[in-house]
Write a structure and sequence with these properties.
This protein has a single domain, classed as NAD(P)-binding Rossmann-like Domain (Rossmann fold, 3-Layer(aba) Sandwich). Helices cover 39% and strands 19% of the residues. The protein has twelve helices and 15 strands.
């Protein structure tokens, strides 16, 4: 199988590329190294994942931009499957520059779909739980000592794929990802291509260069180890389900293996109700693992923040025969170990 990974020099994309290279597939990576610019701050070692893959695997590397139709058409020639991880990933950046956010997440995805159609290639699209917008905050929650929980038993398994997306605030990031999400669904429903949407919750793992705006598990771990201040927006009791990156890649691969049986699909993908953490609970894990007390301050809630988001992963369980294998505490330990082993990357 010939696999194209867009955003393959990023966190998730590099793990996808690594997985398929180890499986003996023919892998091409497309990336434009724009993450630092999109997040409006310096990202340490922006080509680290690219260099890591190039050093360890026989992968074709193409520097190009998904916003450029010519780049996409050229790199997609002869491809069997596209795992589309390239994106503008931060809510804060979308508020500052909604045009760039739209061009990357909406137009870029459209370009990928058109190229996939020409090559009869399957598409895996990395969407986000932010497509549900502030409707998630309309679910009643109960405030406990260190976390919020849904108090409505209808959501004991988390947020399902048919949860409403209308009549609420989304943020530009939520809107642009939803545009791409809907386009992928449409192309699949009209049998233009085989495609699936994965609405991701919080993903963590090694080679994740977390920053305050994106990748909070990695950012909290990095800040704790390097004695950097951590700002918690809100009270720290907000909860997310956590998924280790190798479990995410396994879900992608399970879809690609079953794509002839599944006519498209939308999957909420995360750790599910058994694999959740609040910010305060993550801080406790980091204190135990590092022996250090993070430097924490608190600030107001940010636009688009959800008090609780937990993915209902039952559809992925049933249709993809998939479930998470790595628990959040174990995943956090792996992140801490990777940072400790690679301190020179952050000096």
């Amino acid at each position: 199988m010939k696999v194209l990974v867009t955003g393959g020099a990023g966190f998730v994309g590099s793990h996808v590329a690594e997985y398929y290279a180890e499986e003996g597939e023919e892998v091409t990576v497309l990336d434009n190294f724009s993450r630092a610019d999109l997040l409006d701050q310096e990202i340490q070692r922006p080509k680290y994942n690219w260099n890591y893959l190039q050093k360890n695997y026989d992968i074709e590397f193409v520097q190009g931009d998904i916003r450029n139709r010519v780049d996409v058409v050229e790199v997609a020639k002869g491809i069997d499957a596209i795992v589309h991880t390239a994106a503008q990933t931060a809510v804060t950046s979308s508020l500052k520059d909604p045009r760039s956010d739209f061009q990357v997440n909406a137009l870029g995805t459209f370009n990928i779909l058109e190229a996939a159609k020409e090559e009869n290639a399957a598409v895996v699209f990395c969407s986000t739980n932010k497509v549900y917008g502030s409707n998630v905050n309309d679910i009643p929650v109960e405030e406990r000592d260190k976390r919020y929980t849904f108090s409505d038993s209808s959501f004991k398994d988390g947020i399902p794929e048919d949860f409403p997306i209308d009549h609420c605030e989304h943020t530009p990031y939520g809107c642009s990802k939803l545009v791409g999400d809907l386009y992928v669904q449409d192309y699949a429903e009209r049998n233009e291509i085989d495609a699936a949407v994965f609405r991701m919750s919080c993903i963590c793992g090694p080679r994740q260069f977390g920053v305050e705006d994106q990748g909070w598990v990695a950012w909290f771990a990095l800040a704790t180890l390097l004695n950097k201040p951590i700002t918690i927006y809100g009270n720290g009791k907000q909860v997310r389900d956590i998924l280790y990156v190798s479990d995410l890649v396994a879900a992608f691969d399970s879809y690609l293996e079953r794509r002839d049986e599944i006519n498209g699909g939308v999957f909420n993908i995360g750790g599910g109700p058994s694999n959740t953490l609040s910010l305060l609970e993550l801080i406790e894990i980091l204190e135990r693992e590092t022996g250090k007390e993070p430097d924490i301050k608190y600030d107001d809630w940010r636009p688009g923040d959800q008090k609780v988001y937990i993915s209902d992963i039952s559809r992925a369980n049933d249709m993809l025969n998939w479930e998470p294998n790595i628990e959040p505490e174990d995943g956090t330990k792996k992140v801490v170990n990777w940072i400790e082993e690679n301190r020179d990357l952050f000096s």
